[in-house]
């Protein structure tokens, strides 16, 4: 079964989630709504004195999602997380980012999951949980207000890396944008064979997140590259948020033609 395009928020009653049309038709969407629903929790460490840079957090969130998908507890036939991930992908694919510091972060680290480090950012990803069954130490963490500033100059992406291009017309909190970059990375993962996945994993899932120029965004959206479509339940209206452009070294999915 081909998984549906991911969304980051639970659906409103009788609302269409607005997932990418190439992933599923309406009948399939309705069928997925009737299945048990799960969400992938991500927690970003946000200490008061040392918050991470925004782009670093966005890239680390994407890498955290990929790290979980590649973990033997997911990929192994008898992996302890495999059944939950399969159930999550069979229904609506949701990710929610919460923030923690101090004791909250330490308690979150005691729950089963994986912590991925960026230059400054730390993001812990957990196996999917039922929408109404969050562990207590995660359920009480804040979702809203997760915003970050850049702490370093953002340069052009390193040649050969896949790039997750952000919609320049949107204003999203860092937390919501982290969920969107996680979605885009997952779209790339689905398109790779086992050898390509292994090579990317061995490189620590190297990737870049950048904001496209308005002109480039129009070209990216029309190009046929994988596009994350947000359902529009929080912060923004429904529509495209991130386009995945494949790399030449890792994640060799489609990319724009360049001179």
Report low-confidence residues grouped into runs of 5 or more.
Answer: 8-26
- Structural class label: alpha+beta
Distance between the termini: 37 Å
Helix content: 25-40%
SSE order, as H and E? HEHHHEHEEEHEHHEHEE
Average pLDDT confidence is 89
Task: Tell me what you see in this structure.
With 259 residues, the chain is an alpha+beta fold. 33% of the residues lie in helices and 17% in strands. The protein contains nine helices and nine strands. Strands 1, 2, 3, 4 and 5 form a five-stranded mixed sheet that branches. A four-stranded mixed sheet has the order 7-6-9-8, with helices on both faces. The protein is globular. About 7% of the residues have low confidence.
Secondary structure layout:
Blueprint: H1 26-33, E1 38-45, H2 54-70, H3 72-75, H4 82-90, E2 94-100, H5 102-109, E3 114-117, E4 122-125, E5 129-130, H6 136-139, E6 163-166, H7 174-190, H8 194-202, E7 208-211, H9 214-222, E8 227-230, E9 239-245
Parallel strand pairs: 1-2, 6-7
Antiparallel strand pairs: 1-4, 1-5, 3-4, 6-9, 8-9
Helix pairs in contact: 2-7
């Amino acid at each position: 079964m081909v998984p549906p395009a991911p969304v980051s928020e639970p659906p409103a009653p009788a609302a269409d989630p607005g997932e990418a049309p190439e992933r599923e038709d309406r009948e399939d969407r309705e069928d997925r709504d009737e299945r048990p629903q799960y969400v992938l929790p991500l927690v970003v460490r946000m200490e008061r004195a040392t918050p991470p840079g925004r782009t670093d957090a966005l890239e680390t969130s994407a890498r955290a999602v990929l790290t979980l998908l590649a973990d033997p507890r997911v990929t192994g036939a008898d992996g302890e997380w495999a059944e939950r991930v399969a159930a999550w992908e069979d229904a609506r694919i949701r990710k929610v980012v919460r923030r923690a510091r101090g004791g909250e972060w330490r308690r979150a680290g005691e729950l089963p999951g994986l912590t991925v480090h960026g230059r400054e950012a730390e993001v812990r990803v957990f196996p999917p949980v039922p929408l109404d069954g969050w562990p207590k130490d995660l359920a009480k963490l804040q979702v809203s207000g997760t915003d970050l500033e850049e702490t370093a100059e953002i340069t052009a992406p390193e040649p050969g890396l896949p790039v997750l291009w952000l919609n320049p017309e949107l204003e999203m909190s860092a937390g919501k944008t982290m969920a969107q970059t996680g979605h885009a990375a997952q779209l790339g993962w689905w398109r790779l064979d086992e050898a390509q996945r292994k090579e990317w994993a061995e490189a620590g899932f190297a990737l870049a997140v950048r904001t496209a120029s308005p002109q480039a965004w129009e070209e990216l959206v029309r190009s046929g590259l994988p596009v994350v479509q947000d359902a529009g339940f929080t912060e923004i209206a429904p529509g495209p948020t991130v386009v995945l452009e494949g790399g030449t070294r890792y994640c060799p999915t489609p990319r724009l033609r360049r001179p």
